[in-house]
Specification:
It is a single chain. The chain has 13 helices and six strands. By secondary structure, the protein is of the alpha/beta class. It has two domains: about 220 residues, 3-Layer(aba) Sandwich (Rossmann fold), CATH 3.40.50; about 60 residues, Histone, subunit A (Orthogonal Bundle). The protein has a six-stranded parallel beta sheet with strand order 3-2-4-1-5-6, sandwiched between helices. It holds the Pfam family IPPT. InterPro entries: Dimethylallyltransferase, IPT, P-loop_NTPase.
Protein backbone atom coordinates (compact mmCIF):
# COMPACT_ATOMS: atom_id res chain seq x y z
CA UNK A 1 0.00 0.00 0.00
CA UNK A 2 1.30 3.42 -0.95
CA UNK A 3 0.10 6.41 1.10
CA UNK A 4 0.51 9.63 -0.85
CA UNK A 5 -0.67 13.24 -0.76
CA UNK A 6 0.57 16.78 -0.26
CA UNK A 7 2.90 17.74 2.55
CA UNK A 8 1.40 18.25 6.02
CA UNK A 9 -1.79 16.35 5.15
CA UNK A 10 -1.31 13.54 7.72
CA UNK A 11 0.37 10.76 5.75
CA UNK A 12 2.69 9.72 8.61
CA UNK A 13 -0.12 9.27 11.13
CA UNK A 14 -2.24 7.27 8.67
CA UNK A 15 0.66 5.04 7.61
CA UNK A 16 1.37 4.12 11.23
CA UNK A 17 -2.26 3.20 11.86
CA UNK A 18 -2.34 1.10 8.70
CA UNK A 19 0.94 -0.63 9.59
CA UNK A 20 -0.45 -1.49 13.02
CA UNK A 21 -3.65 -2.88 11.51
CA UNK A 22 -1.87 -5.02 8.91
CA UNK A 23 0.99 -5.97 11.30
CA UNK A 24 3.67 -4.77 8.95
CA UNK A 25 6.52 -2.30 8.37
CA UNK A 26 6.74 1.13 6.76
CA UNK A 27 9.02 2.12 3.89
CA UNK A 28 9.55 5.86 3.57
CA UNK A 29 9.76 7.45 0.13
CA UNK A 30 10.37 10.95 1.47
CA UNK A 31 13.72 11.72 -0.15
CA UNK A 32 14.54 14.46 2.38
CA UNK A 33 13.96 12.23 5.39
CA UNK A 34 16.70 9.84 4.25
CA UNK A 35 19.26 12.19 5.78
CA UNK A 36 19.92 11.88 9.52
CA UNK A 37 21.29 15.44 9.61
CA UNK A 38 17.91 16.88 8.58
CA UNK A 39 15.15 16.15 11.07
CA UNK A 40 13.16 19.22 12.03
CA UNK A 41 13.05 20.82 8.59
CA UNK A 42 11.89 17.62 6.90
CA UNK A 43 9.08 16.92 9.41
CA UNK A 44 10.52 13.47 10.02
CA UNK A 45 8.52 11.10 12.23
CA UNK A 46 9.01 11.69 15.93
CA UNK A 47 10.90 9.19 18.11
CA UNK A 48 7.56 7.91 19.42
CA UNK A 49 6.24 7.46 15.88
CA UNK A 50 9.40 5.65 14.81
CA UNK A 51 9.11 3.38 17.85
CA UNK A 52 5.46 2.55 17.17
CA UNK A 53 6.19 0.70 13.91
CA UNK A 54 9.37 -0.52 12.19
CA UNK A 55 10.42 2.11 9.64
CA UNK A 56 12.88 1.75 6.77
CA UNK A 57 14.78 4.52 4.93
CA UNK A 58 14.46 7.13 7.68
CA UNK A 59 17.71 8.86 8.69
CA UNK A 60 19.85 6.11 7.17
CA UNK A 61 22.15 8.42 5.17
CA UNK A 62 24.42 11.38 5.81
CA UNK A 63 24.01 14.54 3.73
CA UNK A 64 27.62 14.02 2.65
CA UNK A 65 26.70 10.74 0.93
CA UNK A 66 25.53 10.71 -2.67
CA UNK A 67 22.14 8.97 -2.81
CA UNK A 68 19.77 9.26 -5.74
CA UNK A 69 16.49 7.80 -6.91
CA UNK A 70 18.18 4.96 -8.78
CA UNK A 71 20.00 3.80 -5.67
CA UNK A 72 16.81 4.11 -3.65
CA UNK A 73 14.88 2.03 -6.18
CA UNK A 74 17.37 -0.81 -5.87
CA UNK A 75 17.52 -0.61 -2.08
CA UNK A 76 13.74 -0.41 -1.66
CA UNK A 77 13.10 -3.38 -3.96
CA UNK A 78 15.63 -5.44 -2.01
CA UNK A 79 13.95 -4.42 1.24
CA UNK A 80 10.51 -5.32 -0.13
CA UNK A 81 11.72 -8.71 -1.31
CA UNK A 82 12.93 -9.43 2.22
CA UNK A 83 9.75 -8.14 3.89
CA UNK A 84 7.38 -10.04 1.59
CA UNK A 85 8.94 -13.30 2.78
CA UNK A 86 7.37 -12.64 6.18
CA UNK A 87 4.49 -10.24 5.51
CA UNK A 88 1.53 -10.16 3.16
CA UNK A 89 1.56 -6.39 2.83
CA UNK A 90 3.94 -3.47 3.36
CA UNK A 91 3.06 0.21 3.83
CA UNK A 92 4.95 2.78 1.78
CA UNK A 93 4.54 6.46 2.56
CA UNK A 94 5.97 9.72 1.30
CA UNK A 95 5.43 12.82 -0.76
CA UNK A 96 8.35 12.45 -3.19
CA UNK A 97 6.45 11.41 -6.31
CA UNK A 98 9.49 10.39 -8.33
CA UNK A 99 10.65 8.06 -5.56
CA UNK A 100 7.16 6.57 -5.12
CA UNK A 101 6.90 5.86 -8.84
CA UNK A 102 10.42 4.42 -9.01
CA UNK A 103 9.37 1.66 -6.59
CA UNK A 104 5.76 1.08 -7.65
CA UNK A 105 6.05 1.55 -11.42
CA UNK A 106 9.73 1.18 -12.21
CA UNK A 107 12.42 3.71 -12.90
CA UNK A 108 12.38 5.59 -16.18
CA UNK A 109 15.31 4.87 -18.45
CA UNK A 110 16.85 7.66 -20.51
CA UNK A 111 19.32 7.67 -23.42
CA UNK A 112 22.93 8.53 -22.65
CA UNK A 113 23.80 12.13 -23.47
CA UNK A 114 27.06 14.01 -23.87
CA UNK A 115 28.47 14.78 -20.36
CA UNK A 116 29.55 18.21 -21.60
CA UNK A 117 25.87 19.23 -21.64
CA UNK A 118 25.61 18.82 -17.88
CA UNK A 119 28.90 20.67 -17.41
CA UNK A 120 27.53 23.58 -19.45
CA UNK A 121 24.28 23.61 -17.48
CA UNK A 122 26.16 23.59 -14.18
CA UNK A 123 28.21 26.55 -15.44
CA UNK A 124 24.97 28.37 -16.30
CA UNK A 125 23.66 27.65 -12.80
CA UNK A 126 26.76 29.21 -11.24
CA UNK A 127 26.93 32.24 -13.50
CA UNK A 128 23.29 33.05 -14.25
CA UNK A 129 21.35 31.27 -11.53
CA UNK A 130 18.54 28.74 -11.33
CA UNK A 131 16.01 31.11 -12.88
CA UNK A 132 17.78 30.97 -16.24
CA UNK A 133 17.64 27.17 -16.24
CA UNK A 134 13.99 27.20 -15.21
CA UNK A 135 13.18 29.47 -18.16
CA UNK A 136 14.99 27.10 -20.51
CA UNK A 137 13.00 24.16 -19.20
CA UNK A 138 9.74 26.09 -19.53
CA UNK A 139 10.55 26.66 -23.19
CA UNK A 140 11.79 23.15 -24.01
CA UNK A 141 9.39 21.05 -21.92
CA UNK A 142 6.45 22.81 -20.30
CA UNK A 143 5.07 19.50 -19.00
CA UNK A 144 8.20 18.81 -16.98
CA UNK A 145 8.38 22.43 -15.84
CA UNK A 146 4.89 22.07 -14.35
CA UNK A 147 5.48 18.71 -12.67
CA UNK A 148 9.07 18.37 -11.43
CA UNK A 149 10.56 20.15 -8.41
CA UNK A 150 11.79 23.21 -10.31
CA UNK A 151 13.34 24.66 -7.16
CA UNK A 152 15.75 21.71 -7.16
CA UNK A 153 18.69 22.49 -9.49
CA UNK A 154 19.60 18.81 -9.83
CA UNK A 155 16.11 17.95 -11.15
CA UNK A 156 16.06 20.91 -13.54
CA UNK A 157 19.53 20.14 -14.91
CA UNK A 158 18.66 16.47 -15.34
CA UNK A 159 15.55 17.34 -17.35
CA UNK A 160 17.39 19.92 -19.43
CA UNK A 161 20.32 17.66 -20.31
CA UNK A 162 17.87 15.11 -21.71
CA UNK A 163 15.94 17.78 -23.63
CA UNK A 164 19.13 19.21 -25.14
CA UNK A 165 20.94 15.92 -25.66
CA UNK A 166 18.05 14.10 -27.35
CA UNK A 167 16.18 17.03 -28.89
CA UNK A 168 13.07 15.56 -27.28
CA UNK A 169 11.16 16.61 -24.14
CA UNK A 170 12.31 14.95 -20.92
CA UNK A 171 8.65 14.13 -20.23
CA UNK A 172 8.42 12.06 -23.42
CA UNK A 173 10.70 9.42 -21.87
CA UNK A 174 8.59 8.99 -18.75
CA UNK A 175 6.53 5.82 -18.32
CA UNK A 176 8.23 4.07 -21.25
CA UNK A 177 9.52 0.51 -21.06
CA UNK A 178 9.40 0.10 -17.31
CA UNK A 179 9.99 -3.17 -15.50
CA UNK A 180 7.04 -5.17 -14.19
CA UNK A 181 6.78 -5.41 -10.41
CA UNK A 182 6.12 -8.75 -8.66
CA UNK A 183 3.62 -7.12 -6.30
CA UNK A 184 0.32 -5.27 -6.44
CA UNK A 185 0.20 -1.63 -5.37
CA UNK A 186 -2.86 -0.08 -3.78
CA UNK A 187 -2.45 3.69 -3.78
CA UNK A 188 -4.18 5.66 -1.02
CA UNK A 189 -4.27 9.45 -1.39
CA UNK A 190 -5.09 11.98 1.32
CA UNK A 191 -6.29 15.42 0.46
CA UNK A 192 -8.26 18.45 1.62
CA UNK A 193 -9.43 21.79 0.27
CA UNK A 194 -6.49 23.93 -0.74
CA UNK A 195 -7.17 26.46 2.01
CA UNK A 196 -6.94 23.69 4.62
CA UNK A 197 -3.73 22.32 3.10
CA UNK A 198 -2.20 25.79 3.20
CA UNK A 199 -3.30 26.34 6.80
CA UNK A 200 -1.75 23.04 7.83
CA UNK A 201 1.48 23.97 6.03
CA UNK A 202 1.64 27.32 7.83
CA UNK A 203 1.05 25.62 11.18
CA UNK A 204 3.76 23.05 10.46
CA UNK A 205 6.31 25.71 9.56
CA UNK A 206 5.52 27.60 12.78
CA UNK A 207 6.00 24.36 14.72
CA UNK A 208 9.36 23.74 13.02
CA UNK A 209 10.57 27.16 14.11
CA UNK A 210 9.41 26.48 17.67
CA UNK A 211 11.13 23.08 17.65
CA UNK A 212 14.51 24.59 16.76
CA UNK A 213 14.76 24.71 12.97
CA UNK A 214 17.07 27.73 13.06
CA UNK A 215 19.61 25.95 15.28
CA UNK A 216 19.40 22.84 13.09
CA UNK A 217 20.14 24.85 9.97
CA UNK A 218 22.89 26.80 11.74
CA UNK A 219 24.64 23.50 12.52
CA UNK A 220 24.58 22.67 8.81
CA UNK A 221 26.05 25.95 7.53
CA UNK A 222 29.42 24.33 6.65
CA UNK A 223 27.53 22.00 4.29
CA UNK A 224 25.17 24.48 2.66
CA UNK A 225 26.75 23.81 -0.74
CA UNK A 226 25.49 20.22 -0.74
CA UNK A 227 22.53 19.43 -2.96
CA UNK A 228 20.61 17.80 -0.11
CA UNK A 229 20.41 21.16 1.66
CA UNK A 230 19.24 23.12 -1.36
CA UNK A 231 15.67 22.51 -0.29
CA UNK A 232 12.71 24.29 1.26
CA UNK A 233 13.12 25.09 4.93
CA UNK A 234 16.91 25.11 4.78
CA UNK A 235 17.85 27.42 1.92
CA UNK A 236 15.59 30.18 3.31
CA UNK A 237 17.09 29.98 6.81
CA UNK A 238 20.59 30.02 5.29
CA UNK A 239 19.71 33.40 3.77
CA UNK A 240 18.55 34.62 7.19
CA UNK A 241 21.69 33.37 8.94
CA UNK A 242 23.89 35.06 6.35
CA UNK A 243 22.08 38.38 6.82
CA UNK A 244 20.42 38.46 3.41
CA UNK A 245 16.86 38.20 4.78
CA UNK A 246 15.24 38.99 8.11
CA UNK A 247 13.66 36.11 10.01
CA UNK A 248 10.01 36.98 9.36
CA UNK A 249 10.64 37.15 5.62
CA UNK A 250 12.56 33.85 5.65
CA UNK A 251 9.68 32.14 7.44
CA UNK A 252 7.16 33.58 4.99
CA UNK A 253 9.29 32.29 2.11
CA UNK A 254 9.37 28.79 3.63
CA UNK A 255 5.58 28.84 3.81
CA UNK A 256 5.23 30.13 0.26
CA UNK A 257 7.71 27.64 -1.20
CA UNK A 258 6.12 24.76 0.72
CA UNK A 259 2.70 25.71 -0.65
CA UNK A 260 4.17 25.66 -4.16
CA UNK A 261 5.68 22.25 -3.45
CA UNK A 262 2.31 20.92 -2.26
CA UNK A 263 0.70 22.13 -5.48
CA UNK A 264 3.29 20.26 -7.55
CA UNK A 265 2.80 17.15 -5.43
CA UNK A 266 -0.91 17.12 -6.17
CA UNK A 267 -0.26 17.64 -9.88
CA UNK A 268 2.09 14.65 -9.88
CA UNK A 269 -0.07 12.31 -7.81
CA UNK A 270 -3.29 13.05 -9.65
CA UNK A 271 -1.78 11.63 -12.82
CA UNK A 272 -2.52 8.15 -11.45
CA UNK A 273 -6.22 7.50 -12.02
CA UNK A 274 -6.11 4.32 -9.90
CA UNK A 275 -5.41 6.15 -6.65
CA UNK A 276 -8.17 5.95 -4.05
CA UNK A 277 -8.55 9.47 -2.65
CA UNK A 278 -9.87 10.20 0.85
CA UNK A 279 -10.47 13.36 2.81
CA UNK A 280 -7.74 13.79 5.41
CA UNK A 281 -10.30 13.40 8.21
CA UNK A 282 -11.67 10.08 6.94
CA UNK A 283 -11.77 7.46 9.74
CA UNK A 284 -8.93 4.95 9.47
CA UNK A 285 -11.39 2.05 9.53
CA UNK A 286 -13.07 3.35 6.36
CA UNK A 287 -9.71 3.39 4.59
CA UNK A 288 -8.85 -0.07 5.93
CA UNK A 289 -12.11 -1.43 4.50
CA UNK A 290 -11.38 0.10 1.10
CA UNK A 291 -7.88 -1.40 1.11
CA UNK A 292 -9.16 -4.83 2.15
CA UNK A 293 -11.65 -4.76 -0.69
CA UNK A 294 -8.91 -3.87 -3.18
CA UNK A 295 -6.65 -6.62 -1.87
CA UNK A 296 -9.16 -9.21 -2.99
CA UNK A 297 -9.91 -7.72 -6.43
Amino acid sequence: MSVIGPTAIGKTALSIELAKHFHTDIISTDSRQFFKDMQIGTAAPSPDELAAVQHHFIHHKSITEHYNVGAFERDALTCLEHLFKKKDAVIMVGGSGLYVDAVTKGFDHFPDVDPSIRESLNHTLKTKGLGDLQNQLRTLDLTSYNTIAVDNPHRVIRALEICIGTQKPYSSFLNQGKSQRPFKTISIGLMADRTIIYERINQRVNSMIDEGLIDEVKSLLPYKHLNALNTVGYKEIFKYLEGEWDLDFAISEIKKNTRRFAKRQLTWFKKDSKTLWFDYQTPVQTIVEAISEQMHV
